[in-house]
Amino acid sequence: MVWTDGRDHPMNTPRVKPGASKAELAAAARAGCAPIRSASFVSVLVDAAAVRERGLPVADYFLWNDDFEFTTRLLRGRTGLSCPASVVVHKTRTFGGTETDPGDRFYYEVRNKIWLFTRSRGLAPGERALYAGSSLRRWARTYARSQDRATLRRALGKGLNDGLLRRPRGNDEVMTTAWRRYDPGRSDDSAEGRLV
Question: If I label 100, which of 117, 141, 184, 193 is the partner at 20 to 30 A Cα–Cα?
């Protein structure tokens, strides 16, 4: 994944699957790939049969970690590969990794990670501990580098509260709520009046 100027983009870079066996590493290398445990939605190809078996992305995660939850759920007990020969341009507004100061959006990072670690079938217990520790370390770095720590503290508190006390809504409920925000009786045919 590269940024608009051709540099390798540090955001959403797939990492080699923790604990991958020598056989997994060798088999993936023969295909010019590396074994992974999760992937970003940026340039991901998934097996439709796996989606039918394990379900669609959880709509209520939308904005942050929806791809992480979905791909860990799909890949649990399966093979996932990152293929560096496949290059995509990720046109984010600014160049930077996930530690870039997120402001109010930090709420979604926290809430959705709590949901992932406590309610998703994507990670085995040992993996939950590993990824939770990694998340806590990244949150601390994000906080330390932030120019607006008060906003991050509020987002952290609200994210922890909602992540622990609420469950993600079902996709039907999320889509029904989104549909109601539009006026289905609207007379014109503009895209703004329809859920596309």
Answer: 117
